[in-house]
Amino acid sequence: MKIYLRLSITVISFFAENKRRKSCYLLIYYLKKKYFEDSKNEFRPEVNFMEIIKAVNLAMAFFLELAMIIAFGYFGFHYPKIILIQYILVILLPIIAMALWGYFAAPKSKHRLQQPQRYFFALVMFGAAISLLFLTGNTMSASVFAILVIINQTLLLILKQ
User: Fold this and answer.
1) Half-sphere exposure of 136 (CA within 13 A, CB side)
2) How far apart are the first and last CA of the chain?
3) Which of 6, 73, 101, 156 could in theory staple to 94 by disulfide, Cβ–Cβ 3.0 to 4.6 A?
4) Do the Cβ atoms of 75 and 89 come closer than 8 Å?
């Protein structure tokens, strides 16, 4: 979980530190202008909260996919005791996970599975990542990850995303 947090902090600091700072400020200004009154700073009632929930859920799905890939790499580096196997697995496991996800579950894939099969494929991939985290001894990270995956996948089914 610490690696996931460090990755998130790195991405946020990249956008804040580099020349994209102006575009970040423009995005914040646009969101404030769209969702808040300029003078009173009150929330506009015509905002569709379902769209916000759907957007947050899709963003959460993306970050959970990244965390899944990181979990595969984390297992590859920490579980085996032989250093050569560690370096092979830390590269190979995330690549295999990315290839499988990109082939069967990516939105623009030509071989994307239909909804019931894709849901079970996602549960198998996330379940493998969770079990690998348990094997490395990170029970708290695996538990939090499992809860977030269950919430996210349930919302994806309910909201038909």
Assistant:
1) 23
2) 26
3) 73
4) yes
